[in-house]
Design brief:
The N and C termini lie close together (4 Å). By secondary structure, this protein is mostly helical.
Length: 467
């Protein structure tokens, strides 16, 4: 470790305000205290996504709506590397925090923020220059290219700050603080919705107003996250002056854990495009019905995401503290929790699917197909949650490759092969799509359960010595 880095650590080193209670009798409370804020955070993200869609929809311009949807797809692809860095940082911070190596946890956090900042600046520059070309690649019309390209160029300006927010949230979660990321996300998204409405309609800026509202909110979210770390309002304190550090060993560890997650997100985005291409072959009614069913099923992702965050943090800190039994127990309890919840939600979907989808006011055929898809989704709900929990366990332990390999196999075999077989070859249409995706989630669960039972994830070193 160099003299400058050691000086920073001496000044910023603090004892944790709160450590996770990893006693077996308190584990349920610990898991819930971590999961609930993450659920609220994810719910708020979903609400702002829907709100933005409604706001743009009220502009009564199909080109604006198409442009923002395509821009959102491109923006999600750019987030893949930062999601990878955030997951890697959470794992490294959590394992060192559990081992009471607080100085190492701080150094990993500093290195992740430094790398994320420079990577985000480069991505912003490239995206700004290539925005119109990317819309041309989609085959969009000229009005869509003009509106969508303008929207993307405005929003992408703040991508470095938004990605720092992702990474900062990962640092906080690794230290056992899921409340601060929730506060940041809720504040940012409320500002986002209010500014978009005011600028789009109050100042008559239309889509440009929505873009500026999103840009300002994202910038504030990143600044809020950095300010909280600077002031030590989370469990961990990282002064801003320490962000500009460069340690090859730390960077290597971060990238080693991050790149499988980034590749997994990239493949997932690409697979979704191909998946939607298969659904498009079924016609407009099937596309509309699928859209409604997916939006409703996304409610199931919120508790699963929260439990995923809790498991990742608990497993990381448990392994750092050499409590492998607690790490395994947290996974089993999480799976038991979500089994009951998902079965209950599945019963609701099966019993009231058509009454729920009719709220979207679609045509009778769309409602019928959407209701059928939602009923079939009940089959996959438990396995969807198991996949997220087991993935969170492995990533928290430092194994980011197994979820990637498992995902690749299942995408090729089920998401593409079986979906096409059931939907097109067998002629089962949208029902075949949803049956095949249920098999996909089941296959992912089986693969991850095999890795979990082998137990090699318990033996991954907490961290390597740093210079």
């Amino acid at each position: 470790m160099n003299e400058v880095e050691e000086k920073f650590i001496d000044e910023s080193q603090i004892e944790p305000r709160k450590s996770l209670d990893l006693r077996p009798e308190k584990l349920n409370r610990t898991m819930w205290s971590l999961a609930f804020p993450a659920i609220i955070e994810n719910l708020m993200g979903m609400l702002v996504y829907l709100a933005d869609a409604f706001i743009v929809g009220w502009l009564k311009d199909a080109n604006a709506l198409a442009g923002t949807m395509l821009a959102g797809t491109l923006f999600m692809v750019t987030m893949a590397p930062f999601q990878g860095i955030a997951v890697a940082t959470t794992s490294l911070v959590a394992r060192n925090w559990g081992a009471k190596e607080y100085d190492k946890a701080q150094r990993y956090g500093n290195q992740a923020l430094c790398f994320g900042l420079f990577f985000g600046l480069g991505l912003m520059f490239v995206g700004f220059l290539l925005s119109d070309s990317l819309f041309h690649w989609f085959g969009a019309s000229e009005p869509v290219i003009k509106l969508g390209g303008t929207y993307l160029r405005i929003v992408i300006i703040t991508i470095p700050l938004e990605m720092l927010m992702f990474i900062a949230s990962g640092i906080m979660r690794g230290s056992g603080d899921t409340k601060s990321p929730m506060y940041i996300t809720v504040t940012m998204n409320v500002i986002n919705i209010l500014l978009c409405i005011i600028l789009a309609f109050g100042f008559n800026l239309g889509l440009i107003g929505v873009a500026y509202g999103s840009m300002i909110a994202q910038a504030l979210g990143g600044l809020f996250a950095l300010f909280m770390l600077e002031r030590g309002w989370s469990h961990i304190k990282l002064p801003v002056r320490n962000f500009f550090c460069w340690n090859k060993q730390l960077l290597k560890e971060l990238i080693t854990l991050a790149y499988p997650v980034a590749i997994e997100r990239f493949i997932g985005s690409g697979a979704h495009l191909i998946f939607m291409k298969i659904i498009a072959m079924l016609g407009t009614i099937a596309i509309a019905a699928h859209f409604i069913a997916v939006r409703l099923e996304s409610l199931a992702f919120m508790p699963a995401f929260g439990i995923n965050v809790a498991v990742m943090t608990i497993v990381g800190q448990s392994l750092g503290a050499r409590k492998t039994d607690i790490a395994e127990l947290s996974v089993r309890r999480a799976m038991l929790w979500t089994t009951g919840f998902m079965l209950g939600l599945g019963i609701i979907f099966v019993s009231f699917a058509h009454s729920i989808v009719v709220l979207f006011g679609a045509t009778p055929e769309v409602i019928r197909l959407a209701g059928l898809a939602l009923q079939i989704s009940a089959l996959e709900l438990p396995f969807l949650s198991y996949t997220m929990i087991l993935s969170g366990c492995l990533r928290g332990a430092g194994d980011t490759k197994s979820p990637l390999y498992n995902m690749i196999v299942c995408v090729l075999l089920f998401r593409f092969g079986v979906v096409y077989l059931f939907a097109i070859t067998f002629g089962w249409g949208l029902a075949g799509v949803w049956l095949a995706t249920a098999i996909d989630w089941f296959g992912r669960t089986v693969g991850l359960w095999y890795v979990f039972k082998r137990g090699k994830w318990k033996l991954i070193p907490v961290s390597h010595p740093t210079n």
